[in-house]
Structure formats: structure tokens, C-alpha cells
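Repro:
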Amino acid sequence: MIRVSALAALIWCGVCGVCCWPQQDSLLIGPGDQVQVQVLEAPELAQTVRVTDDGTVPLLLGGNVKIGGMSAAGADAAIQQALIAGGFVLNPHVNVTLVRSATENVSVMGQVHTPGSYFVSTPRSVVDVLALAGGVTELADRNIMIERHGTKEKVNYFLSNKPSEAFEKNVEVDPGDIVFVPKVDVVYVLGDVYRPGGYAMATNNSKLTVLEAVTLAGSTQPSAVPSHAKLIRKEPDGSYVEIHLPLSDMQKGKRSDMAVAPDDIIYVPFSYIRNMGSGLTTLVSSAASASIYHY
């Protein structure tokens, strides 16, 4: 048993300033928090440990003690009781300090260059938080979702391509929040174009037209037959429908351009003969393996 003198106890109170007087802590200890435990009578029991998911800390002596949901002062008392109950220290003076709170991290997931958890001790703008994660990728959707810590409230932020709008309508991210950047929708342009593949609908309004998509693919080649182009569209039930696409008339200004939907497939045939051999199943399969081009 380790005993402590009254003088030593007074010195401990003077140095720590927290263990001998009630603490008015507003921040409660929770799972994932990192705490430092000190025992005046036994310096060898000092340790820095992380609170487990069930709110306990594994002590060097005293076993697992539940301190989740407590203030630092409450944790002091809980560990003191554990040391006394185990017969390890007769009259311990314990000081628990919150070294780092798990809620001081912001999780950034989805289409960012370096997804992960980032230390944020004060509210930061969503642009700042995205910068911590290396910024968004070329496939990032502009509609970013923020989940508030505790309330689970969902807040939407639109990351405009225009800097003035992006900064003007900025949203603050609080410690403990989760930021999710979804993947943008993709449209596929296949056949006799210069760069067949998949293209992200990463415009400021997340919309593309047929002519814009074909332009992103480098436009049609001289051997193409745009008058026999096809649009393959996925239905809500998962099936596909084939639609004649008057691409030639669109290019000549005789027909209005039309909007494309996510996962649409635009096929521009090479020739009448090649067109006959390109059925719906073949085109859908080709789109599934198409490369995504960045622009």
C-alpha cells in the first residue's frame, strides 16, 4: 500500500489545480478520445491511453474502468475508486487529462485525393477541409454532403466551378463532422470518335448535351456516319432502350441539341456495315469497360 502525506497532497493540488477541486468541464470523454492518467502516489502508473468503443480505459493497475460520458473530474473519481477497490493505492489522487478528443477530427470521404481523418479543433470552412484532403478529384460531384456530429443533420454544399460563388456560399465544418464527396455521373461516347470513352458530367450544373459530350470525345471522325448514331439509355428497371439519335442534323443546326442523362451511351457508327454489327448488348458491354477521360 502506498501512503501520501498531507503536504504532498497539497503540493499535488497546487501543481495540477484540478484534482482537489470540482471541475466544470463541458467536454465529456467519449470513445476514441486520448486521455492521460496520472497517480500522485504512484508515478509509475502514469499512462496515455485511448478510450475504447465501450467507453472504458485499460489501466496498468485496476483493470478496465468506464469513464465514457464523464467529465475529467468524474473520470478522476472513477479511477480512484478502482485503485482503492483493488487494494493498489490506499488514498490515491488521480488526475485525468483529455489529451485529444476524437471529435476534433473531421472525416473526409469519397472523391478527394487523400481521404481520411483530419485534426480540426475549431470550425473550418468546407473549402479549407477539402484542401486538407488534397482537393476534389476530376470525378467529384459538385454536390457535397456534410453530416453534423451528434445531430446527424445533413447539410448540402454546392462546390461551384466559379471561385466567387464557391467562397461566397461557403459552409463551416465543425469538429466531428463527416464530409462526403460523391462520384459524379458519367456519360459514354463510343464508336467513330477521336477519343471514345466515359466522360464525367462535371460542369457547373452537372449537365451535358449530346453535342457537348461528342465534343469532349474529340468530335466525330471523317469516316463516321453521325446520321445513324444511337443513344442507349438505362431505364429505371435496369433495362436498356435504344433511341435513334439525329446527330448529323444536330451538328448542322437542323435539330436542337438534347440533354443526356447519367450513364447514357452515345454510339457513332463507322459505316453502315459496322453499324449493323453493333447491337445494344455489345454497346452496353463496351461502355462498362470504357476509360474515364479527364478534361
